[in-house]
Amino acid sequence: MPGPNWNWGPSAAMARDGSRLYAGTPEGLAVYTDPINTIGDEPDFYLSPGGPGSGSQDCTACALDETNDRVYAIYQTFSPNKTWVWGWTNASAITADRQADFGCQVPNVLANSIAVGGNDIVFLADAFDIFVFDGVHLDAGTEHAPDRRMTYVGHGEFQPMAYDEWRDLLYMFHAQEHWEHTIKVIENASTADGQDPACHEFGGSGSLIGGSNDRVVDITVFPDDDLLFVTNHGKSYILVFADASTLTGQVAPTNSVYVSDEIENAAIWRESE
Known about the structure:
Layout: E1 12-14, E2 20-25, E3 28-33, H1 35-38, E4 45-47, E5 61-65, E6 70-77, E7 82-88, E8 102-107, E9 113-116, E10 121-125, E11 129-134, E12 140-143, E13 148-151, E14 157-164, E15 169-175, E16 182-186, E17 194-195, E18 199-203, E19 216-222, E20 227-232, E21 236-241, E22 249-250, E23 255-260
Parallel strand pairs: 8-12, 13-17, 18-22
Antiparallel strand pairs: 1-2, 2-3, 3-4, 5-6, 6-7, 7-8, 9-10, 10-11, 11-13, 14-15, 15-16, 16-18, 19-20, 20-21, 21-23
């Protein structure tokens, strides 16, 4: 299996029923069908913005909007700095490489993380700002400046992130000094704008989030159960926080599972009960 891109954002996304896995790789957006049972060394196919024969492109990160059956991928170009957002519709029915159905270019931004929701909102983040876009699915590769931009003074570094479209909350890993890492929760995220929009945080030293000299490689939210999964890199625990939308201050995870010595990325799914 090709290795995911090393970055501060999520480069893998799993369908909630476990039927598909998408992974950003240097070769492009890799797609695995039935990954739980049949995943092998190679993906079933890659998706490339230009479609078959257009050549591979280094995919930085990806996100899945299951409400609208769309998969998104972001790519970076340099000189000048730019982020490309590409997307494919009817994602669950794609069986081979196909040209992207929509996309846009975002100038002067090198985004490492993306989160999407069923209300056609796309969030991008670099290490300093969160950029919000409306209606990217209507774009055809043209330049699209952010519709809104959120900035927090003295915030440390953000990424990765996950969006709860039911409650309009954006969860982001907030790296801080002395390893007092937290999850910052932006309220009314789809309309938030400007400097220091309303938010709250939870975590701290007892939460195991990030750990000492460590980072978080993935955040996954399940809005229907109000569960948040946080995956650490070096101290490779998957942390589970119940009633995530209500948490504030110093909290410990509801549960934690040790996985391996080092996790580069994660894609979380849940079996039906």
